[in-house]
Amino acid sequence: MSYCVNPSCAQPKNPNNVAVCQSCGSQLRLKKRYQPLGILGKGGFGATFGAADLSLPGNPICVVKQLRPASDDPQVYKMAKELFEREAETLGKVGNHPQVPRLLDFFEQNKEFYLVQEYVKGYNLYWTLDKKSLLAYILR
Predict the structure, then answer these.
(1) Domains: count for the chain
(2) Exposure winner among 2, 14, 115, 121, fewest CB in 10 A?
(3) 65 labelled as ligand-binding?
């Protein structure tokens, strides 16, 4: 399955063999390299996707974080771009720390910004905390 990263797309799930979203017409591959497979989470400023890196043997899974500027205003866009570049630079500097997923790539596409990081297998922190809270409540 391919997943459309257009936040306005009504039907983001697509078959693997298509290049553009069947619902909204957006390109499905990012940077002609990353194929989003599904959404991992989303918030007010963007979304996070699991993706396959099609440029490497075995198409390893990575995490693609999408940052959408809050407005079309040129000043907002400029500020968002500066913050994005600063975050990418910071992640690049701490990339060898064992507790931080390594930054693999960063780029801009269609006035949206993307960070590509190493995929770390494990549980979602929110889910883990939620389960522990539920367990603590049950054991009272």
Answers:
(1) 1
(2) 121
(3) yes
